[in-house]
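Good morning,

Attaching, inline, the C-alpha cells for the sequence recovery test we're adding to the shared suite. The designed sequence is right after.
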C-alpha cells in the first residue's frame, strides 16, 4: 500500500511539474494568429536549464513548434522563431515560418520563402514510395525522384507573394516525407 501511495505521489508531482513547465511556454503560441486555439502539447523536450524543443497541436491538426534557450524563445537564423505545419487528411499541405512577433519570416539562406505549399500530383506513386519509407522508418536512401514530378512546391515570401523558382518546382518523395515528419529546422 505504501509503495502504491509513493508511486501515485511521484506521478502527481511529475504531472504537476510538466503542467507548470507547459504553462511557462504556452503563451508563446498566442503570437501565431494562424494557429488555432485551443491547443495542447504534442512533444516536449526541454531540459532543466530551459533549453529544447516544444510542439503544440490543435483540432485542425496544425503543429506549431519552436525552440527555447534559457527559457526564452530561441531565434534561429534569418530571424525565424516558429514553424507552423498544416496537415489535411494526414498529408502535409503547408509550412509557414514566423519571427518572434508572429509575422511571416522568410528563409534567407535559400529563396527567402516564408511559406512552402506542397501539392502531391501523383498520389498513388507517392503512397508506394511512402510505404517503403515507412517500412524503413525513413532510414533509407531513395533515388531522387523529383524529375518524376510527384510532389510540386509553391513558395511564398513574407508578404504572401509567390516566389518564382528558376529551377524545378518539384521535390523528391523522400524530401517531402522528411518535411512531413518535421525533420528539418530553419
Amino acid at each position: 500500500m505504501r509503495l502504491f501511495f509513493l508511486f501515485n505521489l511521484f506521478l502527481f508531482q511529475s504531472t504537476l511539474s510538466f503542467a507548470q513547465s507547459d504553462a511557462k511556454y504556452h503563451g508563446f503560441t498566442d503570437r501565431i494568429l494562424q494557429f488555432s486555439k485551443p491547443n495542447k502539447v504534442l512533444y516536449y523536450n526541454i531540459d532543466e536549464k530551459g533549453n529544447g524543443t516544444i510542439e503544440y497541436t490543435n483540432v485542425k491538426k496544425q503543429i506549431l513548434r519552436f525552440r527555447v534557450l534559457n527559457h526564452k524563445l530561441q531565434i534561429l537564423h534569418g530571424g525565424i522563431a516558429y514553424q507552423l505545419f498544416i496537415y489535411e487528411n494526414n498529408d502535409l499541405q503547408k509550412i509557414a515560418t514566423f519571427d518572434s512577433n508572429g509575422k511571416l519570416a522568410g528563409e534567407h539562406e535559400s529563396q527567402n520563402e516564408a511559406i512552402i505549399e506542397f501539392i502531391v500530383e501523383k498520389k498513388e506513386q507517392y503512397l508506394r514510395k511512402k510505404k517503403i519509407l515507412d517500412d524503413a522508418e525513413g532510414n533509407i536512401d531513395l533515388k531522387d525522384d523529383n524529375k518524376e514530378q510527384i510532389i510540386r512546391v509553391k513558395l511564398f515570401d513574407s508578404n504572401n507573394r509567390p516566389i518564382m523558382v528558376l529551377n524545378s518546382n518539384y521535390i523528391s518523395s523522400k524530401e517531402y516525407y522528411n518535411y512531413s515528419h518535421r525533420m528539418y529546422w530553419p
